[in-house]
């Protein structure tokens, strides 16, 4: 990348900057719809590439660009429900242009049902249009990721974990499709941008207590707080297009680490369209209509949908339901200079599990209810009478999500201590306000002021636990960007200068449960306990960003060179900041035939409330327990310890991306190949650190005779073990992506596309590996903590996948059939171990400090317990054989009023039983289940 930057500098030094500026021209015209009426299209988007200049047509469909360099350029016009027009203008127009857009239907000769490379030619970006979304019958945003290089077909089932989160450049894991913390981290760093504004998950706290159990799954269902947004909340019925940025995004995109998914909803005129689709697990109804108001009052697009999904026809007690209503209003003001689109979205959902009548043991029941409303607006103001400052863009979003999680389960073998206090050092008995003394008359109990009504509870062996979490997430986003355009010598520059502000706050009542019936403890964290927590007391997390970017265009020996370079500065809550440089470049080796691309950039993701403001870690130690005796005056006493788990040294997670690629065009066919490398450092995790083992003196007492006087019988040193937010997660990724779109073969009316990726990923913790596997639950059986080599365990996964799509379409009858062949050529995983047999240091149970093991005899009884047994079950590379999956999609337009669609995944019901390379008796059943669906849509 340094070489690329130096070459660019030398290029400008050698270029004749004193050359006479090119003549400037005016480009203007009118955009019409291609129909008998030939009506002008208002608010159509008109762009000139490669200068990144964009305007919207006025009420008469007219557009105008002033001061455009007098040379060839590409004119790109798009409008809701129309085919995007991309045409090359080689000679200066002598009169206004007359442009017509055709309806986007399956009666076109070339029907795009796959993702296409972005027209910008910079970075790795895929664009998915409306026809591809409908042909696929996508029910959530995650479904369409199968159209991106490296993606494979998934069943459009809203109860699948894969349908919740968006992952970019993720290794295919057919053998083990479970969502792990690294996939959650990928989704956490993926920005979902809706109508110009990002959707935030930073205020999500719908989890019990990661500091006490190490996990951060959502209680009752929904998106996990450590992951991205729940993509199921975005219905696809009113999505016009989706842009997936896998490479280096522009600097205007902040608070991301993996990439961005840009979602554009329908805005403008369209007929009333009603559709219904169903598959074995789901039924979905939706309707939308766009209305042009009279007297230049703009246009409004209205829509709504309802979906109900069961986990399985024989498991109807697990379900997901979703209802949405949205409205988008578009208009122009101030003599057409200000174009604006403002919308409101409302959604309700429930990710639930009813009580299974056959489940008499656990009696599990759960629900994750969400009610949300969002107001967003985006637009641009065209500056009059200026050659430099062309326009000012703005975007804003206010959203409120009310989440109510409920979980019920009957626990067994649940005997444990629970102290109702929140005060560190409090000592309570099973009688509220009771004070106990030792034989010297010294008070043992410590009752905090204001907690005289609290007491200690010895939980029963079996009880029905009911836990609830109420979150009220309020998020704000505002941005403004000034767009400049000027020419310096033979180079054209399109500048961006702007800033944005984000804020996320949770006003919810938080986590609640009965003190006498808390959640089941995690046995790995001995003596740990849960507490209620009020979320509204947690401060907001804020982010302020500024950015500048230059998009330079020039020609060298009649070959186009484009360089986009920018810098972004972000300042986060608690005085954290980061500078992120980003650059993309492309150069034509052979004009209009062969182009090379390169990109480099740093992306940064802010910590969410989950990481900035974790709850305290609580422990309840039993000092005396006479409950098992059954005596009516039995004494039960506990000591509560509470530890602050905040990490003031938490850093900003960042991902460094590098890529290089080529684009080859021949006879209307396009081949794109991209090699990439990514390195995520300071990734967020909630796990043990050297600061999360705290020394505690564990005292135990017994009664003196028949009195209520106690005497101390033991005082043992133990370590309280919990988790803390940290930056120990690291992900290294390399790969190769490709996509080949062949020109349509007219004789057989078929177009072939093949795309895929090789991705290798290494994940590890940069911290020590902590070992206390031989530490017991009793006070006298606790051990020190062994500290093993940092990054000792490095997990590696890789996959090679490809997708072949053959689309046969007959425009005359509006029929399109796509046969899809997904092949997982290789899926491998292995683990590289460092020194996993000899600890480097240890944490002493006596004082909680870290000590070297130099000169320590590890064979003594005190230290043998921190020597971990060497078990390398995953060291051997496991590589699964190729797996093939066949799918079919069919769409048929019936005149202009009806559309029918059908799909079948795993068409031949092929399931592979692959033998494990590690354990010969283990077999993996591979491939997605056979699945099919049907959709009908009617224009009214």
Describe the structure.
This protein is 4% helix and 52% strand. It is built from six helices and 51 strands. It has a 22-stranded antiparallel β-barrel. Strands 8-9-12-13-10-11 form a six-stranded mixed beta sheet. β29 (559-572) and β30 form a beta hairpin. The longest helix has 13 residues, at 2-14. The radius of gyration is 31 Å and the shape is elongated.
Give the topology:
Blueprint: H1 2-14, E1 24-33, E2 45-49, E3 53-56, E4 62-69, E5 73-78, E6 85-89, E7 97-101, E8 116-117, E9 125-129, H2 130-136, H3 181-188, E10 190-194, E11 197-199, H4 210-213, E12 239-245, E13 259-265, E14 270-279, E15 282-292, E16 299-310, E17 318-333, E18 338-353, E19 365-382, E20 389-411, E21 417-419, E22 427-429, E23 456-458, E24 463-488, E25 491-506, E26 510-513, E27 528-529, E28 541-556, E29 559-572, E30 576-590, E31 594-605, H5 609-612, E32 617-625, E33 636-643, E34 653-666, E35 669-687, E36 693-703, E37 710-721, E38 724-741, E39 750-765, E40 769-771, E41 785-788, E42 793-810, E43 815-833, E44 841-843, E45 850-852, H6 861-864, E46 878-880, E47 883-894, E48 898-905, E49 912-915, E50 923-926, E51 931-939
Parallel strand pairs: 1-7, 10-13
Antiparallel strand pairs: 1-4, 2-3, 2-5, 5-6, 8-9, 9-12, 10-11, 12-13, 14-15, 14-51, 15-16, 16-17, 17-18, 18-19, 19-20, 20-24, 21-23, 22-33, 24-25, 24-26, 25-28, 27-32, 28-29, 29-30, 30-31, 31-34, 32-33, 34-35, 35-38, 36-37, 38-39, 39-42, 40-41, 41-44, 42-43, 43-46, 43-47, 44-45, 47-48, 48-51, ...
Straight-line distance between termini: 55 Å
* Continuous helix count: 6
Tell me the structural class: mainly beta
Q: Quick one: overall form?
A: elongated
Q: How helical, in percent, are the residues? A: under 10%
Number of strands: 51
The radius of gyration is 31 Å
Report on the biggest sheet: 22 strands, antiparallel, barrel
The averaged pLDDT comes out at: 90
Oligomer: single chain
> Can you tell me the residue ranges where pLDDT is under 50 for at least 5 consecutive residues?
1-21
**Proportion of residues in β-strands:** over 45%
């Amino acid at each position: 990348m340094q070489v690329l930057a130096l070459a660019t500098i030398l290029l400008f030094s050698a270029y004749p900057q004193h050359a006479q500026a090119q003549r400037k021209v005016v480009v203007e015209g009118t955009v019409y719809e291609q129909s008998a009426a030939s009506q002008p299209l208002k608010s159509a988007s008109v762009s000139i590439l490669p200068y990144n200049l964009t305007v919207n047509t006025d009420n008469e469909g007219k557009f105008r660009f002033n001061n455009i360099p007098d040379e060839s350029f590409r004119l790109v016009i798009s409008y809701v429900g129309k085919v995007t027009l991309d045409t090359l203008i080689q000679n200066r127009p002598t009169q206004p242009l007359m442009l017509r857009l055709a309806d986007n239907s399956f009666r076109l000769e070339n029907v795009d049902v796959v993702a296409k490379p972005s027209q910008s030619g910079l970075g790795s970006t895929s664009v998915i249009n409306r026809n591809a979304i409908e042909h696929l019958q996508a029910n959530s945003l995650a479904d369409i990721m199968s159209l991106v290089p490296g993606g494979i077909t998934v069943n459009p089932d809203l109860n699948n974990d894969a349908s919740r989160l968006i992952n970019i450049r993720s290794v295919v894991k057919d053998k083990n499709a479970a969502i792990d913390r690294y996939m959650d981290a990928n989704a956490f760093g993926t920005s979902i941008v809706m109508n110009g504004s990002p959707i935030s998950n930073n205020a999500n706290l719908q989890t019990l207590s990661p500091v006490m159990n190490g996990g951060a799954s959502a209680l009752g269902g929904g998106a996990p707080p450590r992951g991205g947004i729940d993509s199921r909340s975005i219905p696809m019925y009113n999505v016009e297009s989706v842009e997936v940025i896998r490479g280096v995004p522009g600097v205007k995109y902040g608070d991301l680490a993996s990439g961005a998914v840009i979602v554009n909803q329908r805005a403008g005129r369209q007929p009333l369209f009603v559709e219904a689709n169903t598959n074995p697990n789901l039924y979905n109804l939706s309707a939308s209509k766009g209305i042009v108001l009279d007297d230049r009052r703009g246009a409004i697009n209205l829509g709504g949908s309802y979906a109900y999904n069961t986990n399985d026809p024989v498991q109807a007690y697990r379900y997901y339901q979703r209802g949405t209503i949205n409205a988008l209003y578009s208009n122009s003001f101030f003599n057409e200079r200000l174009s604006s689109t403002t919308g409101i979205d409302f959604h309700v959902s429930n990710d639930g599990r009813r009580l299974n009548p056959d489940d008499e043991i656990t009696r599990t029941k759960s629900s994750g209810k969400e009610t949300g409303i969002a107001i967003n607006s985006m637009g641009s103001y065209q500056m009059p009478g200026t050659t430099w400052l062309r326009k000012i863009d703005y975007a804003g979003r206010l959203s409120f999500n009310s989440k109510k999680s409920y979980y019920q389960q009957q626990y067994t073998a649940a005997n444990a201590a629970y102290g109702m206090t929140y005060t560190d050092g409090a000592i309570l008995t099973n009688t509220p306000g009771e004070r106990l003394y030792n034989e010297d008359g010294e008070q043992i109990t410590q009752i905090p002021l204001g907690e005289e009504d609290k007491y200690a509870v010895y939980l029963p062996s079996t009880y029905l636990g009911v836990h609830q979490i109420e979150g009220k997430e309020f998020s704000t986003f505002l941005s403004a960007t000034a767009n400049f355009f000027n020419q310096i010598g033979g180079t054209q520059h399109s500048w961006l200068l702007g800033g944005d502000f984000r804020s996320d706050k949770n006003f919810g009542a938080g986590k609640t449960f009965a003190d006498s019936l808390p959640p089941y403890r995690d046995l790995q964290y001995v003596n740990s306990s849960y507490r209620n927590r009020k979320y509204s007391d947690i401060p907001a997390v804020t982010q302020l960003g500024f950015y500048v970017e230059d998009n330079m265009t020039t020609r060298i020996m009649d070959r186009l060179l484009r360089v986009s370079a920018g810098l972004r500065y972000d300042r986060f809550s608690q005085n954290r900041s980061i500078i992120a440089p980003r650059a993309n470049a492309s150069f034509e080796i052979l004009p209009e035939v062969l182009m090379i691309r390169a990109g480099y950039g740093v992306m940064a993701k802010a910590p969410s409330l989950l990481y900035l403001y974790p709850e305290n870690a609580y422990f309840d130690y039993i000092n005396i327990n006479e409950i098992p005796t059954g005596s009516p005056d039995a004494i039960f006493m506990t000591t509560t310890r509470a530890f602050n788990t905040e990490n003031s040294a938490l850093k900003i997670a960042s991902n460094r991306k590098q890529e290089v690629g080529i684009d080859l065009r021949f006879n209307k066919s396009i081949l794109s190949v991209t090699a990439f490398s990514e390195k995520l450092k300071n990734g967020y995790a909630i796990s043990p650190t050297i600061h999360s083992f705290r020394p505690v003196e564990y005292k135990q007492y017994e009664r003196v005779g028949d009195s209520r006087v106690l005497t101390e019988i033991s005082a043992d040193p133990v370590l309280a073990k919990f988790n803390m937010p940290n930056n120990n997660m690291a992900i290294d990724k390399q790969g190769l992506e490709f996509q080949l779109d062949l020109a349509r073969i007219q004789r057989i009316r078929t177009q072939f596309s093949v795309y895929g990726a090789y991705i290798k990923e290494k994940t590890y913790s940069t911290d020590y590996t902590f070992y206390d596997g031989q530490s017991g639950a009793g006070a006298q059986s606790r051990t020190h903590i062994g500290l093993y080599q940092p990054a000792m365990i490095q997990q590696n996964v890789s996959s090679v996948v490809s997708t072949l799509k053959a689309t046969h379409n007959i425009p005359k009858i509006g029929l399109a059939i796509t046969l899809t062949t997904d092949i997982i050529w290789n899926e491998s995983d292995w683990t590289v171990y460092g020194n996993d047999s000899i600890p480097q240091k240890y944490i002493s149970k006596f004082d909680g400090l870290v000590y070297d093991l130099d000169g320590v005899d590890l064979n003594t009884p005190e230290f043998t317990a921190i020597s971990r047994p060497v078990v390398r079950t995953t060291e051997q590379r496991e590589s699964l054989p190729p797996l093939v999956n066949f799918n079919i999609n069919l769409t048929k337009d019936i005149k202009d009023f009806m559309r029918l669609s059908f799909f079948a995944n795993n068409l031949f019901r092929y399931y592979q039983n692959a033998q494990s390379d590690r354990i010969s008796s283990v077999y993996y059943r591979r491939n997605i289940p056979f699945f099919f669906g049907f959709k009908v849509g009617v224009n009214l």
